[in-house]
Design a protein that fits this description.
- Its EC number is 3.6.1.55.
- It comes from Sulfitobacter undariae.
- Keywords: Hydrolase.
- It is built from 3 helices and 8 strands.
- With about 150 residues, it is of the alpha+beta class.
- It has a single domain, classed as Nucleoside Triphosphate Pyrophosphohydrolase, CATH 3.90.79.
- The relative contact order is 0.26.
- The structure holds 8-OXO-2'-deoxyguanosine-5'-triphosphate.
Length: about 150
Protein backbone atom coordinates (compact mmCIF):
# COMPACT_ATOMS: atom_id res chain seq x y z
CA UNK A 1 0.00 0.00 0.00
CA UNK A 2 1.30 3.42 -0.96
CA UNK A 3 0.85 6.01 1.78
CA UNK A 4 1.12 9.42 0.22
CA UNK A 5 -1.20 12.11 1.51
CA UNK A 6 -0.59 15.69 0.46
CA UNK A 7 -0.67 18.06 3.40
CA UNK A 8 -3.55 20.53 3.43
CA UNK A 9 -2.21 24.07 3.74
CA UNK A 10 -5.50 25.84 4.35
CA UNK A 11 -6.26 27.06 0.83
CA UNK A 12 -9.82 27.30 -0.48
CA UNK A 13 -11.37 24.22 -2.09
CA UNK A 14 -14.78 23.29 -3.40
CA UNK A 15 -15.14 19.67 -2.32
CA UNK A 16 -13.52 16.30 -1.81
CA UNK A 17 -14.02 12.74 -3.03
CA UNK A 18 -13.07 9.38 -1.59
CA UNK A 19 -12.24 6.30 -3.65
CA UNK A 20 -13.17 3.78 -0.98
CA UNK A 21 -11.98 0.22 -1.44
CA UNK A 22 -13.89 -2.49 0.41
CA UNK A 23 -11.52 -5.37 -0.01
CA UNK A 24 -10.57 -5.28 -3.70
CA UNK A 25 -13.69 -3.43 -4.81
CA UNK A 26 -14.63 0.22 -5.01
CA UNK A 27 -17.80 1.53 -3.41
CA UNK A 28 -19.49 3.24 -6.38
CA UNK A 29 -22.72 5.26 -6.32
CA UNK A 30 -25.05 5.63 -9.30
CA UNK A 31 -26.15 9.26 -9.44
CA UNK A 32 -29.82 10.11 -9.75
CA UNK A 33 -31.27 10.17 -13.23
CA UNK A 34 -32.71 13.66 -12.97
CA UNK A 35 -32.94 16.25 -15.73
CA UNK A 36 -30.53 19.08 -14.98
CA UNK A 37 -28.32 17.10 -12.60
CA UNK A 38 -24.72 17.14 -13.77
CA UNK A 39 -23.54 13.61 -14.67
CA UNK A 40 -27.02 12.22 -14.10
CA UNK A 41 -27.13 8.40 -14.15
CA UNK A 42 -23.33 8.22 -14.01
CA UNK A 43 -21.21 6.25 -11.58
CA UNK A 44 -19.78 8.46 -8.89
CA UNK A 45 -17.68 8.07 -5.75
CA UNK A 46 -18.59 9.20 -2.24
CA UNK A 47 -17.82 12.84 -1.56
CA UNK A 48 -19.20 16.31 -2.11
CA UNK A 49 -19.01 19.97 -1.35
CA UNK A 50 -17.17 21.56 1.55
CA UNK A 51 -19.14 22.63 4.58
CA UNK A 52 -17.88 25.53 6.70
CA UNK A 53 -14.16 25.50 7.34
CA UNK A 54 -13.69 21.72 7.38
CA UNK A 55 -10.48 20.28 5.94
CA UNK A 56 -10.60 18.34 2.66
CA UNK A 57 -10.15 15.04 4.46
CA UNK A 58 -12.90 15.85 6.98
CA UNK A 59 -15.12 16.79 4.04
CA UNK A 60 -14.48 13.51 2.18
CA UNK A 61 -15.03 11.40 5.31
CA UNK A 62 -18.17 13.30 6.35
CA UNK A 63 -19.68 12.91 2.88
CA UNK A 64 -18.86 9.21 2.97
CA UNK A 65 -20.69 8.89 6.29
CA UNK A 66 -23.70 10.73 4.89
CA UNK A 67 -23.83 8.83 1.60
CA UNK A 68 -22.84 5.32 2.67
CA UNK A 69 -23.19 5.41 6.46
CA UNK A 70 -19.57 4.31 6.84
CA UNK A 71 -17.20 5.95 9.30
CA UNK A 72 -13.80 5.61 7.68
CA UNK A 73 -10.95 6.17 10.16
CA UNK A 74 -8.20 8.55 9.04
CA UNK A 75 -5.70 5.68 9.37
CA UNK A 76 -7.53 3.88 6.54
CA UNK A 77 -6.72 6.71 4.12
CA UNK A 78 -3.61 5.97 2.07
CA UNK A 79 -3.47 8.57 -0.69
CA UNK A 80 -4.69 12.07 -1.26
CA UNK A 81 -3.96 15.12 -3.31
CA UNK A 82 -5.29 18.42 -4.48
CA UNK A 83 -6.45 18.95 -8.05
CA UNK A 84 -6.56 22.51 -9.34
CA UNK A 85 -8.79 23.59 -12.19
CA UNK A 86 -9.00 27.10 -13.62
CA UNK A 87 -11.41 28.44 -11.05
CA UNK A 88 -11.39 26.02 -8.13
CA UNK A 89 -9.57 23.26 -6.34
CA UNK A 90 -10.84 19.91 -5.13
CA UNK A 91 -9.32 16.97 -3.31
CA UNK A 92 -9.27 13.26 -4.03
CA UNK A 93 -8.48 10.60 -1.43
CA UNK A 94 -8.15 6.83 -1.46
CA UNK A 95 -9.00 4.64 1.54
CA UNK A 96 -9.22 0.93 2.21
CA UNK A 97 -11.53 -1.02 4.52
CA UNK A 98 -12.11 -4.77 4.78
CA UNK A 99 -14.76 -6.23 2.48
CA UNK A 100 -16.92 -6.95 5.54
CA UNK A 101 -17.61 -3.22 5.87
CA UNK A 102 -20.12 -3.66 3.03
CA UNK A 103 -22.50 -5.07 5.65
CA UNK A 104 -22.43 -1.76 7.53
CA UNK A 105 -23.45 0.38 4.56
CA UNK A 106 -26.57 2.45 5.07
CA UNK A 107 -27.23 4.13 1.76
CA UNK A 108 -28.15 7.83 2.05
CA UNK A 109 -30.60 9.89 0.04
CA UNK A 110 -28.39 10.99 -2.87
CA UNK A 111 -28.20 8.61 -5.79
CA UNK A 112 -30.10 5.55 -7.04
CA UNK A 113 -28.06 2.81 -5.36
CA UNK A 114 -24.52 1.81 -4.56
CA UNK A 115 -22.56 -1.27 -5.51
CA UNK A 116 -19.15 -2.82 -5.30
CA UNK A 117 -17.26 -2.42 -8.58
CA UNK A 118 -13.82 -3.54 -9.65
CA UNK A 119 -11.46 -0.65 -10.28
CA UNK A 120 -11.18 -1.83 -13.87
CA UNK A 121 -14.95 -1.66 -14.34
CA UNK A 122 -15.03 1.88 -12.92
CA UNK A 123 -12.10 3.02 -15.06
CA UNK A 124 -13.66 1.63 -18.26
CA UNK A 125 -17.28 2.44 -17.56
CA UNK A 126 -18.72 4.66 -20.31
CA UNK A 127 -20.94 6.28 -17.71
CA UNK A 128 -18.60 7.07 -14.84
CA UNK A 129 -17.62 10.66 -13.99
CA UNK A 130 -14.54 11.19 -16.20
CA UNK A 131 -12.50 13.33 -13.81
CA UNK A 132 -12.81 10.66 -11.09
CA UNK A 133 -11.78 7.96 -13.56
CA UNK A 134 -8.68 10.04 -14.33
CA UNK A 135 -7.84 10.65 -10.69
CA UNK A 136 -8.32 7.03 -9.79
CA UNK A 137 -6.10 6.01 -12.71
CA UNK A 138 -3.38 8.32 -11.42
CA UNK A 139 -3.42 6.70 -7.98
CA UNK A 140 -3.42 3.19 -9.52
CA UNK A 141 -0.43 4.05 -11.73
CA UNK A 142 1.54 5.18 -8.68
CA UNK A 143 0.52 2.15 -6.67
CA UNK A 144 1.38 -0.31 -9.43
CA UNK A 145 4.74 1.35 -10.14
CA UNK A 146 5.79 0.43 -6.60
CA UNK A 147 4.84 -3.23 -6.85
N1 LIG B 1 -23.91 13.83 -5.57
C1 LIG B 1 -25.21 13.79 -5.91
N2 LIG B 1 -25.97 14.89 -5.73
C2 LIG B 1 -27.26 14.80 -6.07
C3 LIG B 1 -27.82 13.63 -6.60
N3 LIG B 1 -29.14 13.85 -6.84
C4 LIG B 1 -29.40 15.11 -6.47
O1 LIG B 1 -30.47 15.66 -6.52
N4 LIG B 1 -28.26 15.70 -5.99
C5 LIG B 1 -28.20 17.10 -5.55
C6 LIG B 1 -27.50 17.30 -4.24
C7 LIG B 1 -26.24 18.06 -4.57
O2 LIG B 1 -26.03 19.06 -3.62
C8 LIG B 1 -26.51 18.68 -5.92
C9 LIG B 1 -25.29 18.82 -6.79
O3 LIG B 1 -24.60 17.61 -6.89
P1 LIG B 1 -23.05 17.60 -7.27
O4 LIG B 1 -22.58 16.22 -7.42
O5 LIG B 1 -22.81 18.56 -8.36
O6 LIG B 1 -22.40 18.25 -5.96
P2 LIG B 1 -21.81 17.65 -4.64
O7 LIG B 1 -21.56 16.16 -4.70
O8 LIG B 1 -20.66 18.52 -4.36
O9 LIG B 1 -23.00 17.93 -3.62
P3 LIG B 1 -23.14 17.64 -2.06
O10 LIG B 1 -23.06 16.14 -1.90
O11 LIG B 1 -22.04 18.35 -1.37
O12 LIG B 1 -24.48 18.17 -1.71
O13 LIG B 1 -27.46 17.78 -6.55
C10 LIG B 1 -27.01 12.48 -6.79
O14 LIG B 1 -27.47 11.43 -7.25
N5 LIG B 1 -25.69 12.62 -6.42
Amino acid sequence: MQFDIEKYEGTAFKGAKLALYLGDYLAAILRDDKPGLIFADHWDLPGGGREGSETPLDCALRECREELGLSVPQEAVCWGREFRQEDHASWFYVAQLPIEAQNDVVFGDEGQFWQLMTEDAFLKHPKAVPSFQERLALWIAGRDARK
